[in-house]
Design a protein that fits this description.
Elements lengths: L4 E4 L1 H18 L6 E6 L2 H17 L4 E5 L8 H4 L18 E9 L3 H11 L6 E9 L11 E5 L6 E6 L1 H4 L5 E6 L3
Parallel strand pairs: 2-3, 2-4, 4-5, 5-6
Antiparallel strand pairs: 1-8, 7-8
Length: 182
């Protein structure tokens, strides 16, 4: 694999999350019935950063949850022989609520479709919105993000990684690009 190139450094990542926060604050009408749900793994940490930013900037935090979509993926057999299933943490009634799903990268749309399927097993939200750090194009499903940090056009052979301190062994959050192995 070619060397990774940093596309978004930590200060740019912070600015993106702050900008997305203000976009969310502008759109959220009913804080008591709006929840942020991070898609496990990186979406969970990005959601936490957005929630912290909302608390700092709006003083009224949004409630949150975490969604594991492993068993809802349509490529389950391709990702691992024994995929690791972790738990979801949706400690609230989703019926009639506005849910803001948070993920790192929007690519084909299949992860988001899986997340919607998983979320609907908990009930019927009144509205589902999507927040992503990077939209890289190449969608295979009619899914778009309501809140996008940055649009980064890519070739299908390229890989975008949103890296977070908690799980990627990096000092600071960033976004990188590299070529997929041939």
């Amino acid at each position: 694999m070619d060397k990774e190139k940093i596309l978004i450094n930590s200060s740019e990542m912070y600015a993106i999350i702050e900008r997305m926060t203000f976009q969310i604050i502008e759109k959220v009408i009913d804080y008591d019935n709006t929840y942020i749900v991070g898609i496990r793994r990186r979406g969970e940490y990005i959601a936490n950063r957005i929630i912290d930013s909302i608390s700092r900037n709006n003083k009224k935090p949004l409630k949150s949850g975490v969604l594991d979509i492993t068993l809802y993926r349509d490529d389950l057999s391709e990702i691992a022989n024994m995929p690791e299933v972790k738990s979801s943490s949706i400690g609230f009634d989703v019926n009639g609520k506005t849910i803001i799903l948070v993920d790192d990268v929007l690519f084909t749309g299949r992860t988001v479709r899986s997340a919607i399927d998983a979320l609907l097993d908990y009930g019927r939200p009144s509205k589902i919105m999507l927040a992503v750090i990077v939209d890289r194009g190449h969608k295979e499903l009619p899914i778009h993000a309501d809140f996008t940090g940055k649009h980064i056009p890519t070739r299908k052979s390229e890989v975008i990684h949103v890296k977070v301190k908690e799980i990627d062994n990096v000092d600071d959050d960033c976004v990188t690009i590299s070529d997929r192995e041939a």
